[in-house]
């Protein structure tokens, strides 16, 4: 049985004409779960199922990789080839917002318009971790969750501190946080892939950045190296920000 058999496959076309597939399931407030490398793995699907079971409408965009394939060296290498050859994603550039964020913002607005309520949640992980910040520029996003943000790749100190946002989008994120939109962040404390981004977010957003850090050498807080506390904190945050 396919892990996505109970999910509805759709296509979302943004105002600029870009079309990407999505998988949807559940009822309740909307939450966009953006997969990490190498794609919509069984672990990502399992986490998304938990969000559905907690009372949310979950939409998973398919951005790269092959859905349902496990995370391993081969699938990660294949997905890296995809993202490195696509101009929609940034890998090393600093001070820029990934072009893919435009499509994701459109998806969030469309979902919010359909479902109404206080807004939608946006959760990015690892390679897509910073996308939740880029999406909160739009007021449709009321519950941004940043899980182990790893882009730009933290190969230098400057890149490890970069939030994958343009200066204008950084200002918009700061303004939204100052107006009360909190950001939840999750990571393993010793995870070098996240660089110093949590320190940067604390400095920029103050108490409106809720940083949750775990001991150990893991990376994927919600999937491959799943922490129950991480899942519980995400679900509680989504209910607090999105429930009527």
Which descriptors would you attach to this protein?
244 residues; alpha/beta; Rossmann fold; 8-stranded mixed β-sheet; 35% helix; globular
Distance from N terminus to C terminus (CA atoms, Å) equals 35 Å
* SS strand fraction: 15-25%
Gross morphology: globular
The CATH topology comes to Rossmann fold
Class, according to the CATH hierarchy? Alpha Beta
Taking all Cα atoms into account, the compactness measure Rg is: 16 Å
If you average the pLDDT, what whole number results? Answer: 97
Report the CATH architecture: 3-Layer(aba) Sandwich
**Count of distinct strands:** 8
How would you briefly describe this protein structure?
Helices cover 35% and strands 20% of the residues. By secondary structure, the chain is an alpha/beta fold. β7, α7 (197-205) and β8 form a beta-alpha-beta unit.
Would you mind describing this structure in some detail?
This protein is an alpha/beta fold. The protein has one domain (about 10-240): Rossmann fold, CATH 3.40.50. It has helices spanning about 40-55, 75-85, 100-115, 130-135, 155-160, 165-180, 195-205, 230-240; strands at about 10-15, 20-25, 30-35, 55-60, 120-125, 140-145, 185-190, 210-215. Strands 1-2-4-3-5-6-7-8 form an eight-stranded mixed beta sheet, sandwiched between helices. α1 links the parallel β3 and β4. The chain starts with 7 loop residues before the first strand and ends with a helix.
């Amino acid at each position: 049985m396919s892990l996505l058999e109970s999910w509805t496959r759709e296509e979302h076309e943004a105002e600029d004409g870009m079309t990407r597939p999505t998988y949807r399931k559940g009822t309740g407030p909307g939450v966009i779960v953006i997969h990490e490398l190498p794609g919509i793995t069984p672990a990502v699907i399992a986490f998304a199922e938990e969000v559905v079971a907690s009372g949310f409408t979950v939409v998973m965009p398919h951005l790269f990789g092959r859905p349902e394939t496990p995370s391993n060296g081969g699938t990660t290498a294949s997905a890296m080839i995809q993202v490195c050859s696509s101009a929609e994603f940034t890998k090393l550039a600093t001070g820029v917002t990934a072009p893919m964020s435009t499509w994701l913002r459109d998806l969030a607005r469309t979902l919010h318009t359909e479902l109404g309520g206080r807004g939608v949640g946006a959760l990015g992980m690892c390679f897509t971790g910073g996308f939740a910040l880029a999406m909160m520029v739009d007021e449709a996003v009321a519950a941004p969750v940043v899980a182990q943000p790893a882009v730009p790749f933290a190969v230098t100190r400057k890149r490890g501190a970069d939030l994958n946002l343009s200066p204008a989008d950084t200002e918009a994120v700061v303004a939204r946080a100052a107006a009360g939109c909190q950001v939840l962040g999750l990571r393993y404390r010793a995870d070098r892939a996240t660089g110093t981004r949590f320190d940067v977010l604390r400095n920029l957003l103050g108490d409106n950045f809720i940083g949750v850090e775990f001991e150990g050498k893991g990376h994927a807080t919600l999937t491959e190296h799943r922490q129950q506390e991480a899942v519980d904190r995400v679900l509680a945050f989504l209910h607090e920000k999105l429930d009527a």
